[in-house]
Design brief:
alpha+beta, 83 residues, globular, OB fold (Dihydrolipoamide Acetyltransferase, E2P), two-stranded antiparallel sheet, 6 strands
Amino acid sequence: GLTDEEIRQVDRFVRANTKEKFGPVRTVTPELVFELAFEAIQRSNRHKSGIAVRFPRILRWRHDKKIEEADTLATIQAMLPDG
């Protein structure tokens, strides 16, 4: 997970780079890369992405990765059982 200081840094980034707000959801400028883990993914009509991630968690902040190296929604969609 993230350290307390990293959480503060992410919070400051989100506050300074929010482009859209919808309730607790924020759209931010894509600059930070995180390594995530999850138990499962499934299709969802409730989420704008069309994907629900079950039990997601941040493993670490990838300072060594550029945003262009991050996986995309298409990568996650390809992981679904029916591809």
